[in-house]
Every structure is written in structure tokens, then in C-alpha cells.
Amino acid sequence: MRTFWLCFVPLFVAVDALGGVPVFLALTEDCDAPRLRRVVVHSVLTAAAVVLAFLAFGPELLRFLGVTPPDFMIAGGLLLLALSFGDLLAYDKGAPRADPEILGAVPIGIPLIAGPAVLTTCLLLAKLHGAVITGAAAVANIALAGGVFWFARPITRFLGRAGSRTLSKVASLLLAAIAVMLVRRGIAAALGAAEP
Q: Which terminus, N or C, of the chain has the lesser number of Cβ atoms within 10 Å?
């Protein structure tokens, strides 16, 4: 159970469902209730499928390319650090234009729910804790994000724009700290492997 939570918390921060609420609301402002439900279900299924496929085939791709676990930890940590800095320094996440027919898959499922931070975090956690636990934690977080988006309008009324933005910034700060930890572990592993 402890291992599950060690995977769940970094992925919860990486998904940042509350931070994505303003974008979700902007993309779905013209949707009625039945259409909104279809969009949420489609987005959750798409994000889960992509993350699980990435967990299944990503490590093989890295091995084929000759990328070692320390290499990936350092690169992934730097990427997460850049993404978290982008979120911390940005005033607001802009809503991209989307085709209404595929709104649930793109851009809500990918990349709003399962973006680069989530995919990178999944591969890093899979190396530390195993793919099965990481996959379960990822699916749980994706389902949680779906629930947040399902109730996005009431949540926004309760928290307000300032509250939603504040929680998003706190999540980005935590993600930056996790990124530094991954870089530190990656450097330590690389130096340990280089010793005779």
C-alpha cells in the first residue's frame, strides 16, 4: 500500500486536475450536460489507454535507444522541472482550439490529463516501483481527474478562480521538488555505475 501512495502522490501532482479546470471549462463552455459527460468519459479512457501503452512499450523503446535508467531519471527530472517552472511562472493556462468531435481525446485526454509530465513521471516511477503499481496509481489519478472535470463547474464556483490558480501553483511547486529529487537520484546512480 505504501508503494502505491509513493506512486500516487507524484502522479497526482503531475496530472494537476484542479489546474486544468479553467482550460476544461473554456473548452466545454458550449456543451450541454449529456455532451459534457461524454467528453469526460472519452477523455479518461483516452488518457488511461495512452499512459498504459506508454508504460508497456516505453521501457523497451528506451532500451532500444541505449538509454539507461539514470539517463532517463536525469532527463525526466529536468523535463519535469522545466514543466513545473512553466506552470509556476505562467499567469494562466491558455485554452487551445479544439475540434468538438474529438474534444475528449484531444486536447483534454491528451495532453491536458496525460501530458508530458504524467508520461515522464510514469516511466520514472515504473523504474523505481514497478509498472503494475505505477499503472494502477496512474489510472486512479486519471479517474480522479475525470471526477474533478465532471464536477468542474461546482468546484470552480466553490474555490473561485483565485483558489483554483493557487492550488495549481502549489502543485507545480511540489512537482519541481520531485523533479529535483529525480535529478539527484539519477546523478547518484550514474556516478555509482561509473565507479570501478
A: C
User: DSSP letter at 106?
Assistant: I
Alpha helices in the chain (DSSP H): 2-15, 17-27, 33-65, 69-89, 116-129, 131-150, 152-194
Q: Cell 536525469, residue?
A: 74
Burial of 99 (0-12, 13-18, 19+ CB in 10 A): exposed
Is 80 strand, coil or helix?
helix
Please report, as a single letter, which amino acid is at residue 29. E
Q: How many residues does the chain have?
A: 196
CA–CA separation, 10 and 45 (whole Å) = 21
In tens, the pLDDT along 17-27 reads 887 887 788 78
